[in-house]
Design brief:
- The structure is a single chain.
- The protein has 250 residues and is of the alpha/beta class.
- The chain has two domains: 64 residues, no CATH class; 183 residues, Vaccinia Virus protein VP39 (Rossmann fold, 3-Layer(aba) Sandwich).
- A seven-stranded mixed β-sheet has the order 7-6-5-8-9-11-10. A two-stranded antiparallel sheet has the order 1-2. A two-stranded antiparallel sheet has the order 3-4.
- The longest helix has 17 residues.
- It starts with a helix and ends with a strand.
- The relative contact order is 0.13.
- The N terminus is likely disordered.
Amino acid sequence: MKWLLNFFPRPWLIQLSLFFRPFIKLYFSGNTFEDPIDGSRYRTFLPYGYQNLRKNALCPGTLSLERHRLLWLYLERKTSFLTQPLKVLHVAPEQVFYQVFKQYSHWDYTTTDLHSPLAMVKADICALPFEDNSYDLILCNHVLEHIPDDTQAMRELFRVLKKGGRLIAQVPLDEDRAESFEDDSITDPKERTRIFGQYDHVRVYGQDYYSRLQSAGFQATAVDYLAELSIEEQERYALPKREKIPVAVK
């Protein structure tokens, strides 16, 4: 299953996954785990990871990972975003969310990315082709760690967000690291994977991630929603062991 995720997003593979999804859900059906995004239940989730396989990380039916499920629970239970009429920008849209959000008639929903076939607008995050103060909500998850000039990307996200709007921008963040680390001299893919987590990541973020967002103009907060959930819920939904949701306000 890992190879399937590594090849995303390819249009034919996305369509293939959607075709087989009912059969996959049936094969793995059970009552041990649940994906809160669609309420489907499974006897097991699948291992997933680049360097170290994480047990019960990947939902076989929806292809959601731990961070997707945590973010969904936060959006559903702690915000009104999913029910409000909003103008929403989704950067590098995750398939698991795209399949849901594109059906929201109450959202004015735009997706953008340089390469993804799920992108309605092909664009560079460092030079977004949108007007100032356009969006109520921007979702930009696991994107900034790929961007060499993340400061410029943050400025662009700030520019196109409306005053009072929210940016949710999850990144792989090392909670034990005070400062982010990047080194352009490391070019070997295996070494980059070892140091940065993936060969195509350009940095490891630390706690200064929030001050980076603030330097772009945001008021940034680390929301520890995981701490509000019971152990039973954390296990049932197979959520991350440690993760906070970065929420930034313009």
